[in-house]
Write a structure and sequence with these properties.
single chain, alpha+beta, Jelly Rolls, 2 domains, 9 helices, 23% strand, globular, Crp/Fnr family transcriptional regulator, RmlC-like_jellyroll
C-alpha cells in the first residue's frame, strides 16, 4: 500500500471536504495515477490540454506564464495541495500556463473522465469536485483583490501568514514574480525598508 498516496488523498480531501467517508477516499485512491519528476521538470507545458487535477504528494510546483518575455508566477503548490489549470481542464482547450517542479516531486493525477464518472455515481465525489472548483474560484478572487488593493508589504505579509512554506522553499525571484514585484522590491520588503 502506498502510504504517500493515502496521506496525500487525506490531506487534499481534508482541505476541501473533510466529511468525506473512508469509502469515498479509497475510491479516489484507486484511480489516481502516480508520476515522479526531478527538479526543474515541466509537468504541463503551454499549448497542452490539462486532462487531470493534480494532487501534490511530495515536492513543490509552480504555475507560470510568459508576458512580455518575462515569466510570471501565478501559483505555488506543495504537499497536500492541488494543481489545476482550470480553464484548460474545464473547457479542454490548450493552456497558456506552464507547470514546473521546483523540487523533486511525486504527484497524483486525478483524470477528468474519471472525476466526471465518479461524480455522477457518488454524491461525495460530486461534492468534493464542487468544493475543488469553489476553492479555485475563491483563491483566484483573493489573489486578484490582493493585487488590486494591497501594498507590496501587505501582499508579502499575507503570503508569509497563509503559506510560509512558499517563503521557505521557493526561489526569491519566483516569489517576487508571484507578488507582482521586482526582486529588489521584495528584498526591501523583507528587510523592512519598504
Amino acid at each position: 500500500m502506498d502510504t504517500l498516496l493515502r496521506d496525500t488523498v487525506n490531506a487534499v480531501v481534508n482541505s476541501r471536504f473533510p466529511e468525506m467517508s473512508i469509502e469515498g477516499r479509497r475510491q479516489i485512491e484507486s484511480i489516481l495515477i502516480r508520476e515522479e519528476f526531478p527538479k526543474g521538470s515541466i509537468a504541463l507545458n503551454e499549448g497542452e490540454v490539462a486532462h487531470e487535477i493534480v494532487f501534490v504528494g511530495k515536492g513543490m510546483l509552480r504555475q507560470y506564464y510568459y508576458k512580455n518575455g518575462k515569466d510570471v508566477t501565478e501559483h505555488f503548490s506543495y504537499e497536500g495541495c492541488i494543481v489545476m489549470c482550470i480553464e484548460s481542464f474545464l473547457k479542454q482547450v490548450p493552456t497558456r500556463l506552464i507547470v514546473e517542479t521546483l523540487e523533486p516531486s511525486i504527484i497524483y493525477l486525478f483524470p477528468r473522465d474519471m472525476i466526471q464518472k465518479l461524480a455522477r455515481e457518488n454524491w461525495e465525489i460530486n461534492m468534493f469536485y464542487q468544493k475543488i472548483l469553489e476553492y479555485s474560484l475563491i483563491v483566484s478572487q483573493v489573489k486578484a483583490d490582493s493585487w488590486r488593493f494591497e501594498s507590496a508589504r501587505e501582499r508579502y505579509n499575507l503570503l508569509l501568514e497563509t503559506h510560509p512554506e512558499i517563503i521557505k522553499r521557493a526561489p526569491l525571484a519566483h516569489i517576487a514574480s508571484y507578488l507582482l514585484m521586482t526582486p529588489e522590491t521584495l528584498s526591501r520588503v523583507r528587510s523592512g525598508v519598504l
